[in-house]
Amino acid sequence: MTYQVLARTWRPQRFSELFGQDAVVQTLCNALTSGTFGQAYLFSGLRGVGKTTAARLLAKAVNCAEGPTAEPCGECDSCREIAQGSSIDVIEIDGASNRGIDDVRELRELLQFRPTRDRYRVLIVDEVHMLTREAFNALLKSLEEPPPYILWIFATTERLKVPETIQSRCQQLEFRPVGSELIRGRLEKIAVAEGFSLTPSAAASIASAAEGSVRDALSLLDQLRAFASDNVDDEAVASVLGVPPMEVTVQLVEALAAGRIADGLALVRDQLANGQDASVLYREIGRTLRAALYLAVDPDLAPTMSDTHRDLLLAVATSGGVDSLSRMLGLWLEQEALVRGAANRELALEVASLRLARWPSVQRVEEWLAGIGPVDPGAGPSGSPSGAGPTRSSPGPAAASGGASAAAAREDEQAAVITPQDPSLAEEASSDPGVILATRVLGGEVVAVRSNGEGS
Ligand SMILES: [Zn+2]
After folding, report:
1. Are 69 and 217 found together in one domain?
2. Cα of 52 from ligand 1 centre, angstroms
3. 81 alpha carbon to ligand 1 midpoint, in Å?
């Protein structure tokens, strides 16, 4: 027997099975139940979230021998033929490969005839935004006064590219990206029903990689089943998705958050040496940092992971705290484009990791400057013998009063930060010569600028 892909085996056959799209389902079912459904619909949303499936369900609902109904029987000729894609009254067209006016003319010719057997002639146009302007104009005429037996269903991943004139003549339904927790639950349910093994963290990784698309999640799961002979675990996910095992990113984040530069860099190098893609590794560091931040804010909000990873990250969350982790995540975000766009992404990743690991030192200097805590410039961050070296000060005076500082000369942006252009800041600076105007990390060095003209 040939293998049928999961997306097909598990394609929803009734509205109640179309998960993650409650608002759409409710709107359609209400319209069907009350008999007030429209003659033209525009379904928009990300790929693989159920637009075409919903279009077929709607076709079944209006044409079912028992219908129109929100619960098509699934048994009658109409229902079965629509499910198989062989109904002569339900026509599916791909807008990407039938873009021109001639294609639309052909479609319009179909409108002249009543349905052969069913109540409605349903025309489903996928990727409708790909049609040419002339094709849209031709389409518009049919939308203005459609014959009563016609139902148009347009689907698009790019609603804004569909002309206003078309949009305004359709009932618009926006399909949302499906939440990763919902997808994860779905994958686990499918694994149980199909009788193969899928670990919770593997399910979570697949769900997250699918970025809201159920179809993407299911095709990843197909690939993984084939690769891992029905034993889908973290290792299989790491190999097929090309992502580092979560164990590694958790260790990495733990080292960086503690300021243990050497440990962090060793892990990064190890991954790169194993052929790991630098920007994927950086992305996963961000995901793990985010998970740690969630654990610090409220453990119930954190994404699904194994107990071991959770315990490790919980320790990072507890010792780091919300403020520190959110600023690390901010720093991670600032550098993301740099890592992605760098000519040497491996080097960019190392520098970015270094800066993240320097964050604990920066924080301690800030606290010192703010008079909150003591700082020992000669020591690494607490509890990290292999950690950062001494916190060096900026090389020269960085005068807020406009004098050219070494730091400002090195970086224009820095000059903009240390010159108090903000009037309230200037006022504060004149009344208190010790006020801190800025602290920045420049090339791994901590530069603090005070209004008396001294960098610390
Ligand atoms: Zn039926």
Report:
1. no
2. 18
3. 10
Name the phi and psi angles at 441, rounded to 5: -105, 120
Residues whose CB is under 5 A from ligand 1 (ion)? 64, 72-73, 76, 79
pLDDT band at 414 (very low <50, low <70, confident <90, very high): very low
Whether residue 60 has pLDDT greater than 70:
yes
Per-residue burial over 360-388, b if 16 or more Cβ lie within 10 Å, else e, is bbbbbbbebbeeeeebeeebbbeebeebb
- The pLDDT > 70 percentage for the chain reads 79
Length of the chain in terms of residues written: 456
Q: Are residues 358 and 444 in the same domain?
A: no
Q: Same domain for 272 and 403? A: no
CATH code for the domain of 236: 1.10.8.60
Q: How far, in Å, from the CA of 57 to the mean position of ligand 1?
A: 11
pLDDT in tens, 384-412: 333 333 333 333 333 333 334 444 444 44
State which residues form the domain around 346: 246-369
Dist. CA 14 → ligand 1 center (Å): 11
Same domain, 188 and 153: no
Amino acid at 225: R
CATH number at residue 340: 1.20.272.10
Domain count, the chain: 4
Q: How far is the CA of 456 from the centre of ligand 1 (A)?
A: 77
What pLDDT digit, counting tens, does each position of 264-320 carry?
999 999 999 988 889 889 988 998 999 899 999 988 877 767 777 888 889 999 988
Please list, in sequence order, all residues whose beta carbon lies within 8 angstroms of the beta carbon of residue 426, skipping any fewer than 6 positions away. Answer: 420
Q: Are residues 233 and 250 in the same domain?
A: no
> DSSP state, 118?
S
324 and 208 within one domain: no
